[in-house]
Amino acid sequence: MKFTLYLSALTALLTSATAQKVSGSAQGFAQGVTGGGSAAAVTPKNIQELVTYLTDKTPRVIVLDRTYDFIGSEGTVKEKGCAPWKTGAGCQLAINAAGNWCGDNPKVDVTYSKAGTSGINVASDKTIIGVGNKGIIKGKGLRFVNVKNIIVQNIHITNLNPQYVWGGDAFTFSGTSKIWIDHCTTSLLGRQHYVFGRDKSTGITLSNNHIDGHTQWSAGCDGYHYWTIEMVGQGDQITLQNNLIEHTAGRGPALSATTFLHAVNNVWRDINGHAIEGDTAGKGLFEGNVFQNVKQVVVPDFKGQLNSCPDNAAASATQQYLGRVCQGNIFISSGAFNRKDTGFMSEFKGLPIARSTQATTAQSKVPGNAGFGRI
Can you give the pTM of this predicted structure? Predict the structure, then answer.
């Protein structure tokens, strides 16, 4: 019995030690990011220690080996919100953000955890790593504002007031550089899974993540989360690689302002609205992706430039910018996506470019590899 307990303790120790090292390295625009580097690993025992380690000015490797539950930690708010999309059991209500968002929509009572409405402001030079499937942050997201050189790997952010629009965002970026989010899962959010503000963020790679849109509350009152990836930055540079985006209804991404996006080897599946939208001058190369049961891949009034490598001529036109031809996409029971814009391709010049495989490889590998607990 004692020997068995000893082995169990030793196994747990070795598992934790292994998880203290980053798995792999960033491809694409975040290539070269080091996070906390060789700093000694620390494991926060509670939410207070977690906040301290994330926000101090010391380079750190922060190991998450449990659930850090912020729900109610900053109090519960009871106030008037509104019902923009009906009041049925499956409909999201809304917090009256900034005191005036609701406008003339019908007023309703809302009760929510204050902690979820504002994320933790992570400082520069941090590595955040989850152990197995235990690194969970519940009820609060992470914010990267005017910081640089951060790695987040193998964690799950969940339960940010999902019944309310404006209830909380999982990952927020503004004025950042060299941020790598890898093998993370986001679920049950009030607002965006990823949101990029207007201040320029460069050197960003989002890879091997699972954006899980299953919910009991949605803007469409149908269980499909609408608020997915908001990109409104001026000059943002983002690599989106090997991610699984499923059961959403829109903004996947909202590619706006002058954001430059390289979307490679991702899987969009079970999207009952649209995947790509954009209202200004966003630019995106989409290659080697899978669109499965996506009702509308791109909205017809998209304002920016897109290249989906729909034929040999379009693919060949990318070779001078990528050093290779782009990979075609796969469409399974999905809408059309035939865009050939190349006027933005010169923005790849001087940037590290993520490797690409055929879409069939993404189709077979991404769903089983994306998200936390998979490394």
Answer: 0.95
